[in-house]
Hints:
The chain is of the alpha/beta class.
Amino acid sequence: MCVSTLELPRATPMNRLILLRRQSPDWAALSSDFRRGLPIDPRRYVPDHAVPGFPQDLAALIGAWNERFDTDFFTFRALLVRLSAADLAAVSEASRYGYDQLPEIAALARTGPFYLYPHDDDDFFAPYAAQVVRTAAHECDALVTPLFRIGKRSCTFVPTGCAAERVLGEPRAQDFRFQTNNYALHSRHLTDPEKIRAVKDHIEA
Length: 205
């Protein structure tokens, strides 16, 4: 699978929140090639190994999308990436890293404490996320926060026994504690790049 690269600002030990974008296809290049009428090899966007819960007929599903909608799937995903990147840039006191920078994160983990939020290229964060991290107890191994899901039936997943400051749509029990971008890991567990590599796909992680 081809992975896109973004110009991301380097983190410094002063930032207690680090956002790590997981591996991702280069949707912009796929969009450009598709719109030019070039053939698209599915290996450019399908994982190179079996991922639990990942659709096996992804190429057919994308083909059905492209036949049904005016905006092709690759262009739609490229736009989502741009929206997500703009959202992440608005998160104050946060440093952003790409999946190709794991050794740098591991090295940083040996210099001081921080929390790492892994996320996908279409995820969004509240602009005050760093404040949540800063006021949390910095001894815990992981932070788990409510998760919004926007769709036909928008909802907010809230951990059992917790209260969400804001609820979008209907509240729902958080059936999986660790979901796409609702958890952060303490840096003391991130000194080995191979351990960080385990979060490259949110289903496997």
